[in-house]
Amino acid sequence: MGYAARDCIAIDDALVGVRAALQAGMTVIHLNRFPDAETTPENAIMISNMYQLPAVVERLTREYWQTPVPQHSIGRMIMASLRDQLGGLVYSTEHGKTCPICREALEACQCDEMSEQQRLAALDGVVRIRRETSGRKGKGVTTVSGIPLSSDDLKALAKTLKKRCGTGGAVKEGIIEIQGDHRDTLRQELLALGYQVKFAGG
């Protein structure tokens, strides 16, 4: 089932696309990186970088549906959508290799930092330990989520926990995975480090 144009939000960095979306009756966000050289059409919403996008979408969502959505959730959805659409690195003759999400030069890109901040902001202070086997071909793992550490510190902690459990593991999207069932050992270790720990799931 399609959506009416008035129910859609278009995001474009090209004036031709912005004007076409406005003509179709959409709400339009214009990514205008050069506002001094390019004028955003009157009925479009201008942003100068991708970091402003979650707040704008949150406001539009609240105004239209009267339902607030946490910005960190919107940020993840936007980043994932852009990553799916653009995929891989792109190349700019002006900047060389650029980030496929914000399209800034890799040296200036802050997407990883922003994603890290959003992940940490979403945590509630409770570390959850869970035994998981679904989709792992019978090879269960113990996952540890909700640890309020940066990616580098999380990897260092994972290394310590793997050594303590005598097994392998990895860090995936802010979650530590330890091969096998080591819930009790991990709980003791994390409590000793001062974390509030809970068992989750079955």
What does this structure look like?
- With 202 residues, the protein is α/β, with parallel strands linked by helices.
- Among the domains are: 70-122, no CATH class; 126-200, Translation Initiation Factor Eif1 (2-Layer Sandwich), CATH 3.30.780.
- It contains six helices and ten strands, in the order βαββααββαββαββαβ.
- The chain has helices at residues 15-24, 53-65, 71-86, 111-121, 151-165, 183-192, and strands spanning 9-12, 27-31, 45-47, 90-92, 96-98, 126-132, 141-145, 169-172, 175-179, 196-200.
- Strands 8-9-7-6-10 form a five-stranded mixed sheet, with helices on one face. It has a three-stranded parallel sheet with strand order 1-2-3, with helices on one face. A two-stranded antiparallel ribbon has the order 4-5.
- A hairpin with a 2-residue loop joins strand 8 (169-172) and strand 9.
- Helix 2 (53-65) packs across helix 3 and helix 3 runs antiparallel to helix 4 (111-121).
- The longest helix has 16 residues, at 71-86.
- The radius of gyration is 22 Å and the shape is elongated.
Multimeric status of the protein: single chain
Q: Describe the biggest sheet? A: 5 strands, mixed
What's the CATH topology name of the domain at 126-200? Translation Initiation Factor Eif1
Name the CATH homologous superfamily of the domain at 126-200: SUI1-like domain
The CATH C-level name of the domain at 126-200 is Alpha Beta
Supply Rg: 22 Å
Organism: Vreelandella sulfidaeris
Protein name: SUI1 domain-containing protein
Domain SUI1: 131-194
GO molecular function: mRNA binding; translation initiation factor activity
